[in-house]
Amino acid sequence: MSADASNLFGAVEAGGTKFVLAIGSGHDEIVAQTQIPTTTRDETLQRAIEWFQGQGGIAALGIASFGPVDLDPASPAWGFITDTPKPGWSQTDVAVRLGAALGCPVGLDTDVNGAAIGEYQHGAAKGCDVAIYVTVGTGIGGGATIGGETVKGSRHPEMGHVMLRRHPQDLDFAGACPVHGDCLEGLASGPAIKARWGTSLSDLAPDHVAHQIIADYLAQFCQTLIALYSPQRIILGGGSCRQPGCST
Amino acid sequence: MIRAQVATYAGSYFGVHADKIIVSSGLGTRSGIVGAFELAKKAVNVED
Prior knowledge:
The complex is a heterodimer of chains A (248) and B (48). Chain A is of the alpha/beta class and 248 residues long. Helices cover 28% and strands 21% of the residues of chain A. Chain A has helices at 41-55, 94-102, 111-122, 184-188, 190-197, 209-229, and strands at residues 9-14, 18-24, 30-37, 60-65, 106-110, 130-136, 140-146, 149-150, 233-237. In chain A, the strands form 2 sheets. Chain A has a 5-stranded mixed beta sheet. In chain A, strands 8-7-6-9 form a 4-stranded mixed beta sheet, with helices on both faces. Chain A is globular. The N and C termini of chain A lie far apart (46 Å). With 48 residues, chain B is mainly α. Helices cover 62% and strands 6% of the residues of chain B. Chain B has 3 helices and 1 strand; from the N terminus they run H-H-E-H. The longest helix of chain B is centred in the first third of the chain and has 13 residues, at 2-14. At the A-B interface, strand 1, strand 2, strand 4, strand 5 and helix 3 of A face helix 1, strand 1 and helix 3 of B.
């Protein structure tokens, strides 16, 4: 490792459609950044490894990954994406493989926990003892920080799969979640919206009832989070929360 | 719309100010990569 490498860190935001890769001394001093499509696991991880190797050495790598992810440091499967519904990615040794190839320590958390840490350290949750980051898009997920540490527990929260009271104008839809049907993700994610109304929320008129229905489900979810965590901040990210008819 | 509905659901009982609690991202689409840098620093015990 070169002298400069001791001051440089690698960062990976590993998503289901793309990997964002960055290198720098911190989030505000990024010296290089790129993104690659998430294809097969071997191709994607090899491309990530080659990109980092081409940038020179790094002192450590941080990975915020789609999941589920084994985050238990005592587990033999630590660092693995486990039983994901994404085809071909179950039991993928994402953290171990990248760390071994780049010869550096790896810090790992879920994608939403990673975003929650980012918001706690430098964004809308700065100074908040309890904060929750929620993303609403193709899927729905949430990560919580308490005292600056992410909540992991026996595995990690799967906030998008809470069950909700059905909106009275949305009683016939079975839901789009392959596991639960009409959990929050099954009712309010992008695929769930498209399954009901044939398009995304952004393509529907602001006065379309879909906005009321989706806003109601997200409000129920926020109320649940408030009741459970008493957070100082709930940060809503993702495309659905930015639509004019359904905005925060 | 979400904040208003949360106020309806939670406000009267919890004394919650939804306008203060429920906010948009301060980092936008960068929150994940910013968090990943923090994870890297934590792996080698480097603090900001």
